[in-house]
Amino acid sequence: MALEVDEKNLKQGLLGLVVALVEVIQDLVERQAIRRIEGGSLDEDEIERLGKALIDLDEAIEKIKEDNDLEDVVNSVMGSLDDVAEDLLNKFLNPESWAEEVDEK
Amino acid sequence: MKEGRYIYSVVSSAVESELGDVGIGESRVYLVPCGEIAAVVHSCVAEPYVTKDEEKAKEWVLEHSYVIDLATDRFGTLIPFSFGVIFIGDDDSVRFWLEENYDLLKEELEKVRGRSEYTVQIFCDEDLIKEKIVTSDPELLKLRDEIEKMPKGTAYIYQKKLGLKVKEELIKETNRLAGEFGVYIEELVDEVKIEKKVSWIPDKYKGMMMIAAFLCLVSDGNVDALGNLLDGIDKREGFSVRFSGPWAPFSFVQLKGT
């Protein structure tokens, strides 16, 4: 099948994918920060500095999204990633449904 | 070109009859009976219906659904076929297939007799439930108050922490609610399935969180009671229910092995 490539679409799609992945990493970093704080390994100044750095990262991502009109693309990538993750988890947690799916095919 | 029969549904009827030129592309739709059941078909060439024109495709699918609705009105609940199923051969080939699968088809028709499929989707106002979660948990409430007094960077991290906790509780709470509603609904329906992939929701519900989506096979006599139950849920603060149907029982007939 021939692919019809629209340059603007391609740029948006690719950038959207990259930003979505950065958001996934951002989420992991934030969770890690919370874990460090709960573990007591950071003092007040360090927590504040870390928090400010995370705010900067968040603002930078938001700006890229806004400037390039990426909100919808990123949401759709995130949605698809959620579906993939859920599907995978389901298959591991519930192997019977996997077998059924294979049977149906 | 090989001869074919496009099939819309299998109905309970023992006699030959016609529905008129109501099929796809105004085809003449008629019944091919076998014993007490019949296939609703139109005659065509054995080539799949394919088009690149989206409008045309929509029109075909609507025409397909229209015949299913018409046949339901006339013969009661039927076994619906998805768009695009074509038998290779003539009426005799269809009759042969009906004969081969007679017991299974009869059984399925019996199962759906006097019943229809309905979809039930339950939505809630995510913010409202989150607020309830925070205000009913002293620890979360305390954290929220403390965040207000923290310096900016620290507040950001603790806000994330609060958000994660609330989200965790939100999932627990909505699962609990979905289970609770599911139990009530189960009492009023013959069969219930979880709708795994919800493809489309009206704008009215966008921005709300879907906490449950069920496909239900409901006896005609129980539809009002189910409607009342769902009305009750819909009236709860922060909840909204989408109840749609009756549909042909696409999700409840098994034609595996035919």
Quick structural summary:
Chain A has helices at residues 7-39, 44-67, 71-93, 95-104. By secondary structure, chain A is mostly helical. Chain A folds into two domains: 28-69; 70-105.
Question: Radius of gyration of chain B, Cα only, in angstroms?
Answer: 25 Å
What structural class results from the helix and strand content of chain A?
Answer: mainly alpha
- Count the E strands of chain A: 0
Supply the helix-strand structural class of chain B.
alpha+beta
Mean pLDDT of chain A: 84
Bulk shape of chain B:
elongated
User: Into which percentage range does the β-strand content of chain B fall?
Assistant: 25-35%
Largest sheet: number of strands, sense, barrel closure of chain A: none
The largest inter-chain interface, given as chain pair and residues per side, is: A-B, 16 and 10 residues
**Cα-to-Cα separation, first versus last residue of chain B:** 25 Å
**How far is the N terminus from the C terminus of chain A?**
23 Å
Give the assembly state of these chains: heterodimer
Whole-angstrom Rg of chain A: 19 Å
Task: Report the uncertain regions of chain A.
Answer: none
Tally of individual helices of chain A: 4
Helix fraction of chain B by DSSP (H/I, runs of at least 4)? 40-55%
